[in-house]
Amino acid sequence: MNAASSIMRQYGAAIALISGLYSLVSATGDTGMMGSNSGLLMTILGIVVVIHGVVLLTPYASRLGNASGPLMIGYSLVMLFNQALVSTTGSMNWGMDGSMDSGMGSGMGSGMTAGMGWDLGMVALAILMLISGLIMTSQRDTDAEM
After folding, report:
1. pLDDT by residue (tens digit) across 61-108?
2. What is the SS3 string spanning the chain?
3. 0.90 exceeded by the pTM?
């Protein structure tokens, strides 16, 4: 492995760790996502992305082979898709009855969902992860030609 690949792997690990941790914190924090479809997806994705980031910092990173870049692209697309669903449906329980079942009382659901929009922090991290995945994938192709 050359020095550029090692540095790229470290950047990828940093992006994965921060994005995964942000997903976990936003899904389990006081944002009301816990117990929703969106929250469950972001919790599972956050755990997977954090594990991927940790693996990138270990000698086991070579076992990922050329899959790391496409995986990062996939994670970012799931994050962006989830944000789009939450934003357009106005609910974190997309695909359900359209109501927000947050367990906070029956009268609060409609008022809380009306103001929901994009989590710009999540979107920014997802775009950064997408770019990282694209760079990792293109770098892999360049390394294969050498």
Report:
1. 888 888 999 999 999 999 999 989 888 876 666 554 444 444 443 333
2. CCHHHHHHHHHHHHHHHHHHHHHHHHHHCCCCCCCCHHHHHHHHHHHHHHHHHHHHCCCCHHHHHHHHHHHHHHHHHHHHHHHHHHHHHCCCCCCCCCCCCCCCCCCCHHHHHHCCCCCHHHHHHHHHHHHHHHHHHHHHHHHHHC
3. no
Phi, psi at residue 91, to the nearest 5°?
Answer: -145, 150
Q: How many residues does the chain have?
A: 146
> Within a 10 A sphere around the Cβ of 90, how many other Cβ atoms?
18
Is residue 19 within 8 A of residue 56, CB to CB? The reply is no
